[in-house]
Fold this protein.
Amino acid sequence: MTHIAILGGGPAGLAAAHAALAAGAEVTLLDEGERLGGQYWRHQPGITDPRMQHDFERFERLRDSLEHAEVHSAAAVWSAERSDGGDERGRRIVLRAVVGDADAAARRTVVVEADAVVVATGAHDLALPVPGWTLPGVTTAGAAQALAKRDGVSVGRRTLVAGAGPFLLPVAQSLALVGSTVVGVHEASRTGALARGWLPNPWQLAGKAGELVEYVGSLARHRIPYRVGSGVVRVVGDGRVEGAVVSSLDAEWRPIAGTEREVDCDAVALGHGFTTRLEAAIMLGCAIAGDRSGRFVVVDEEQRTTQEHVYAAGEVTGIGGADAALAEGAIAGFSAAGLPLDDPRMRTVVARRARIRRFARRLETAHGIRPGWTAWLDDDTIVCRCEEVTKRAISERAEVPLRALRLATRAGLGPCQARTCGRAVESIVAEAGGAIAGGFERRPLLATVRLGEIARRER
């Protein structure tokens, strides 16, 4: 029986596990969250307002279908590599993890040897830096939604939501449902970009129309203003957030002089898209493609990567939302278990994937990050929060190789390993005429573990 390991318990990982089990494979799923569902189905039983969830019945069906799978939640995978095997099964993929709360004194060690692996590690939300974004009260949009969904807590009494993309809408809805007054949603893209992304062939969006109507209705009920071509260019306050300066933005996201105004708020949620989590795929040797606007795992029609027996699905192959992740995950799970694309069980999800991929292209056209955003930074703006590296320090060394810049400034060398600042640093370097070859994706650690946990006898 083929043994398939799946990294990630969000929509893509759950769909992959479900498909692999249906195809007769043995499945081990490892997820870093306390409970399955990923960012999309983040929940806390008894706390999460059901109005914040979409298609939760599907999550419950997928979760319940894993009865015969080995599932490890709160699993920090710190190593992914190939083993020579030494038996008739040949080379296998070996994953090492520690399982338990991150601050637990004695997490248990788990070693998984699999014939194939599906990388479904997803993405984390991206917030572009603005002057004042290190003040207490500024969060990413995803963090604001996570607090609302998981804990029923609002990041502030009066919250301003800003950035780009349709994700801003459910964030505003979630904040309103937990009692925050959302003083505005500011979408950086202008009407022209939004029209080019969303208006052509509107029938292709039939499956998303219901969600849009729900969000628009929620904004109307809570009297939340929605502004396009607008963004936060400065956060102000003494010791914490007391307000935010918003400005009209041109088509390249540069602030338009004379349009600035200050909005009274005590919290700001910033979300300018998503950054893929590529560490596991890179450690396994998978090819990565893209530029500073986004990098993704290269896959074929079977969701197979450039490495034998390694598959990838969901946001790591391109930001496309939960529906795309579900379709890709199912194809990856079936393919890893040995089913061909023309198998009857594959036809429906293959057709669905083709339809949903168009949605991902629309997202980039309508809401993709424009290069002019760096114009709202000043020289003293902290870009790397972990090491408190400013824009000036990065710009002054933009001509050196990216690795040398990191060593000279310490940008991206802090605890988050450039997960927060990497895209911003690359944009500043490119603006100053420097090269960004290699990027910030190649990180030495998948997860933080103690030396004692690495040294502990595997069992």
Summary: The two ends are 22 Å apart (CA to CA). The chain has 13 helices and 22 strands.
